[in-house]
Automatic annotation (TrEMBL):
The keyword Phosphoprotein does not apply. GO terms for molecular function: electron transfer activity; heme binding; metal ion binding. This is AAA ATPase domain-containing protein. Residues 168-319 form the Cytochrome c domain. It comes from the Bacteria. Keywords: Heme, Iron, Metal-binding. Residues 1-20 are annotated as: Disordered. Pfam families: AAA_16. PANTHER family: ATPASE DOMAIN-CONTAINING PROTEIN (PTHR34301:SF8), DNA-BINDING PROTEIN-RELATED (PTHR34301).
Amino acid sequence: MDPVRNPFAPGAGQRPPELAGRDREIDAFEIVLERVARGRPERSLVLTGLRGVGKTVMLGELRSMAVRAGWGSGKIEARPDADLRRPLSAALHRAIRDLAVQHPRQERVDEVLGVLKAFALRAAPDGARLRERWQPGIDVPVRNGRADSGDIEIDLVELFTEVAELASEVATGIAILIDEMQDLRPDDVSALCAACHELSQSRMPLVVVGAGLPHLPAVLSASKSYSERLFKYSRIDKLDRKDADFALIAPAEREDAGFAEDALESLYERSGGYPYFVQAYGKAAWDAAPTNPIRAEDVALAAPEAEAELAVGFFGSRYERATPAEREYLRAMAEVAEGADDPVVTSALAQHLGRKPSSLSPARDSLLKKGLVYSAQRGQIAFTVPHFGRYLLAST
């Protein structure tokens, strides 16, 4: 098989050649765009799931849908302990520029940009010298007195209102997409929920689409009790057999190639239906196959290469971030779960290691902050990365 024509593309956040199994989320966002455009109430969206299921890809697809609908849009990636003002300012700057080409009055656009600039400049700590102050790159005069109080909750409500009003003046909307949403600081989560609540009550055309790990709903709920009713939650999971097969078959057919049934069965068994793994094994199988169609023996030959690539780029890069104490904790999780992705009871981990539960808390808390594990429910812990337990047992 010609490697140049290989259609499969494993990569972080990279759109696969066929976005299979995500029709429900795409259709739901299409409805959101239509309802908001008609001034009807609609909730913002939150996508949750493990690493490698395609949350970032979905955010990119939803942003493309918003752009095609004529909306202003901006995307950010939250980072632990990082302030929300800077990345959000840059995202909204992009969104307002999208709207500017539709708005008949540039001076009105500049007014909103002035408010955004005032909001952005509050990212500098009080007392910071001029050379230490971050400049947002917005070339209009600052409009003081709006969205610049320094209280992120007040400022975010006022800023979102200004931007949403600008969108409504051209009969369109604003979409703000936030990846790794669970990494937002508590104050920023609270402010974001409050702003979304305020705008939903007034039916303003602004929606937030967040994506994060499975415990993201608990993070939002801990911030504002009404967040359970504020967002529409959608769990992004692994593909079923039919969709996983389609993700392989459709791109191959466009290159006049195909898969034998036994190859598809083997690929699903090895990938578990996780989209990133489907692409990784599909790419390796294509390169290993001498003739068309790709067969089970080609998959078997290619599997070690795919697994070696995953071990370095997907699993290993995360494992290297862990300290020795954290690695001991991770391996114990894998051993207790016997390599499965199932949640593990924390008391069982302590018993397995012969330690007091309290002595394991620092390692667990650090792994939670690094996004390597999440609390499935009280007293349980699970990997954020599918097949991570299997990798640990095989390689450590």
